[in-house]
What does this fold into?
Amino acid sequence: MASIPLLRLSLHRQPLLKADSGRSTAVRSPPDFPHPLKPTLHISPRPRPRPRPLPPSRPSIIMSYSTVPATERLISVAAYCLPFFNGLQYGRFLLMQYPSLGLVLEPILPVLSFYRSVPYASFVAFFALYLGVVRNPSFSRFVRFNSMQAVVLDVLLVVPLLVNKIFNPGRAGVAFRLMVMAHNAIFVFLVACFLYSLGFCILGKTPYLPFVADAAERQL
It folds into this structure.
């Protein structure tokens, strides 16, 4: 079997002229066959992956915060006083249980007494705030949004009063205890919302009250 490749190589030789004793004889030269131990396929090297182009750099955004004027802050703070004054009645059970908490409200007692001395003060303040501020495009969005939050919060405070009038829990029993617990929770929530909104408005930032901000946003 090893002589078969040599026989094939000898059949395909090309003639060469060789001088021998004054005459030329035809001698075939071996063809250019590849080496039997070398591979005959030429494997091209893999192309190097092209570097991916870098994404375009995003322009840096510089946010500028405009300072809220002091008059707009004052109007926003005054707007949150409406639900706070109307919701103080929910804290009567908590103030009776802890009389020392009434000392915190002493600085605002003159303003509160004047507010309650005016007949229909809550209705007048409600419509004045809604029609004069919220629906007035001359005010900025900061003032209108805070005023709308105060209006929505004041409307939500009416719901527990309607529930008490419908079911009439009385002055004793389980229903009365549930009413006391509900009033205390509402009062704590109201005070927390008032202090939170007061601090943010003084700093010139927009407060977002839970369960209130979404409803106020839809009305603007």
